[in-house]
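input
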Amino acid sequence: MKTFNSFTALFAVLLLFTVSSLHAQIGRRFPSEMFTYNDSITGLPVKVLTNSPEFSDTRIYQTHPQWSYDNKYIAFRSQRSGNGQLFFVHETTGEIIQITDGEGRSGEYNLSRKKGLLYFTRKLKDQPAQVIELDTDRVLADSEKGTMKHHTAYERVVSVWPDSLSISGGMGLDVEEDLLYVGVTPPYNVETWQNPIDDTNHRIKNHPGGIRILDVKTGEIRKAFDVDFTMGHVQASPFVTREIVFCHETGGDSPQRMWFGDMAANSYRPLYIESDYEWVTHETIVDANHVYFNVLCHLDRLKTKPSGIFSVNLRNGHVRVIGQVFTGNVNDDLKSIPAQTNSFWHCNGSQDGQWAAGDDFKGNVTLVNVKTGEMHLLTTGHVMKPNHAHPYFSLDNKKVLIQSGKLSEGKRLAVMIIDIPESFYKE
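output
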């Protein structure tokens, strides 16, 4: 009997240790994977910040902040701890630190631009979704001291989401950081929208959607408005309070892609009325008054109209074509150009109004001088698998952050950063 009790006690200790270990991932530190290589085409140095031999490291989407508020860390998602969490990589030292923990699907990451806070959603099976506020400063401090607690010690549940609404389409933090704008889908479906030109251009079934406004302090949820299409890419303006941009998400070509939301008035309107021949996608707010977006030309039928990175003014609707990558040989007949030749795919802009950046179908990243139209190839060969490069400018407008499948030939993503050389400014 004594032997049994001793074994039971030992088993209990081992079980407790195992369970504790499962909850001890938050704050875990990983050695630097950082190194630099020179681009074989441009010759420019590319700093690789993450390079896991097993796991893909994906950045937060380019419509949201990538850097911690103190500009020391860059955030990325990874499976390197076994269940998909958010990590920070120190831009200077390359040290990697796990920031979130817990079971269930987590997403919709919003980093505060003012303090060490992170807002995200967590969805456990058969349970309502939660919106969580996490104190990243405390996580980093306890990680440094080696005194980590259970992940819930760093979290505050802002709100438990009602069963009547599914969080769908993204979440944006107002520039005042008092409200979250949450894309939702009600619990019913409508017929799939069919593109009258080409019904293969969408991959996501159409659902009515909407925006709900969540008070960060009180957890109160109120309705802003509903729409009759699938909500996607909700982003809050980093410059003007109570303004958002969102899209009709189809996974392909939408009949009217971009929309602007006035959250003070609980109203919305289309942003850039597109034509039937245009494939509009991947909008991002670049300053207080402008949104950059892409008009694709990767199909033959799209090559006879203007395309490339566009700018639309939020105040007066004025539109400007910023630039497009070269899509074929000068002497090519239109019919001889392959359908997937090339096109800018995603875009971003520097906050000083100097640069636009675009990745293309060939995996290259190009800078466009917005003031002069001059184009500069920055870095090449990033494969665009298993995801796209998604260029993003640093707050000082001197660096471009990307994710890349180059090192693994499209099997995994790595986070990389490229300095904009001084020579690009001398035109």
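quick obs: Residues 1-23, 188-199, 328-340 have pLDDT under 50 and may be disordered.
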